[in-house]
Write a structure and sequence with these properties.
The chain is of the alpha/beta class and 191 residues long. It has helices at 10-19, 38-45, 61-73, 91-97, 117-123, 159-183; strands spanning 2-5, 30-33, 49-52, 80-82, 101-105, 128-135, 145-152. The protein has 6 helices and 7 strands. The longest helix is centred in the C-terminal third of the chain and has 25 residues, at 159-183.
Length: 191
């Protein structure tokens, strides 16, 4: 698989560590980013290939999307994991990888889609939130849900505290879903 990340890479690292176990049914081929993300250094420290495709290096979003698809294709992945990758994947990317791209999201979709899910759950006064692993489609957090895990919102939770608790569940769920996909226990929809 190729893992795409925009930040620290804790989700990517969870997959890398799991893939290092002899009985885990999937391997990480590379980690890619859309900015100078700490995830790249983390991946390098595990001996993995890394690549960067910065949107600012391209004249249009469509050019960036095509370049990202080419960069990912170089590793011939059976699965692409958007793990904290803060970009919407466009038509060229989805034409090549839409039938094998999944995303993590720190909320129970369809609730609190978008970039500020944890903050939005707190602002709404929700009693719980969670995490979702879903197949990527052309929308923002609208693809078919593969798995979810619920996380209670505790009195006094701040965005940082709640997000940390959600991330623990998100990492575990992502590792489980990728294993289930590799073993054929979960199937992705064919667009």
């Amino acid at each position: 698989m190729v893992v795409l990340a925009s930040g620290v890479g804790s989700l990517a690292e969870a997959l890398i560590r799991a893939a290092g176990e002899p009985d885990y049914p999937a391997r990480v081929a590379a980690v890619g980013a859309d900015r100078p993300a700490p995830a790249l250094a983390m991946a390098r420290s595990h001996g993995l290939a890394v690549f960067r495709v910065f949107p600012g290096d391209f004249g249009t979003r469509a050019e960036w999307d095509r370049a990202l698809a080419v960069a990912v294709a170089a590793f011939r992945p059976e699965l692409v994991v958007s793990a904290g990758f803060m970009r919407v994947l466009g038509p060229d990317f989805l034409a090549r990888f839409g039938d094998r791209t999944i995303n993590t999201h720190p909320a129970l979709l369809p609730a609190f889609a978008g970039a500020h899910a944890v903050r939005d759950a707190l602002a709404a006064g929700a009693g719980f939130t969670g995490c979702t692993i879903h197949q990527v489609d052309a929308g923002v957090d609208t693809g078919p849900v593969l798995a979810q895990r619920r996380v209670p919102i505790m009195p006094g939770d701040t965005e940082a505290v709640l997000h940390a608790r959600v991330k623990v569940q998100e990492r575990e769920l992502l590792v489980e879903v990728v294993a289930a996909l590799a073993r054929g226990a979960i199937k992705l929809a064919r667009p």
